[in-house]
Amino acid sequence: MLLTKVIIxxxxxxxxxTSTQVADIIATEINEAFPDCEIIKMPIxxxxxxxxxxxxxxxxxxxxxxxxxxxxxxxxxxxxxxxKNGTAIxxxxxxxxxxxxxxxxxxxxxxxxxxxxxxxxxxxxxxDFMLCIGGSATTDGGCGMASALGIRFLxxxxxxxxxxxxxxxxxxxxxxxxxxxxxxxxxxxxFTVMCDVDNPLFGERGAAYVYSPQKGANPAQVKILDEGLRxxxxxxxxxxxxDFSDIPxxxxxxxxxxGCVAFLGAKLKSGIEAILKLNDFENQVADADLIxxxxxxxxxxxxxxxxxxxxxxxxxxxxxxxICGFCDANEAQLRESNLIVFETSEDIxxxxxxxESSKYLRLAAxxxxxxxxxx
Length: 375
What we know:
alpha/beta, Rossmann fold, Glycerate kinase, domain 2, 2 domains, five-stranded parallel beta sheet, 15 helices
């Protein structure tokens, strides 16, 4: 098999290698085996911390900084990217992430800084946004973000306030007219949210019950947060005439998913679909000979909305191979997908393959190239 063009689109090997490192190692082995092969690297980000760096390493662009408020309302410097094609890539983890505050504040943490980050990009004339919303510290439904963008939340006395998790239940009305003067081009902007979870806004699978304990909430606080999100959902429905609560991903990042849809008109997309679009995958794959992906553990979930499934669905008949840490998928799934798998842990323990991950990934990539040369 003569390789003239290969797309490398790996996920990270959690706890061992970033997706960019994985792509670089595989690219080195392809180049050694097929020196004239064109290599397109598309390392996959998961929407959490480091997503801007990963995406820009693939598509190119520049990094910018802005002064914003942290989740606990301290001034911090947050970075964001603008790709070569003019798309702003914003990580909410940079401004409102759990690592950007002192201690845990599940009831009062705010996404206000994320709204400020959006404003900073808007002031640069950007109108196409990719929002990466993993790693949040917040459960405010995106109210902080909306407040920074000029949207007014009013209590029963008509007083304006900025809701946080513990005060969502105080929202009586929402005034969206203020945002028109503050951001004249907001309506002309396009927002895509990288979202790989399908949790609703509230309930047993909602933002509070599933994610707020990780942010420091005790059982009593979880209940308060969930009740607040339930009330918030009813106010949104009354205001916009749309039920945002059951939109898959509405509960992502403490309800920020719902807030992005309601206040930004955002589209919630799987991370892999957003990355493929940003990388012009549809055109790149047209003349490719092979797609190589990778992840730490390949199992049944890999075929359900993750990186692997997205690549297979968009491959247009181009073969897809996976170089993974180890494979726990059944043979029927592999056959049905025509997937060829190479494991870094073959003939050794998983622990050893993780300990020397670069070495064993390189060996697995060499094996894949020998196989390509033999068919």
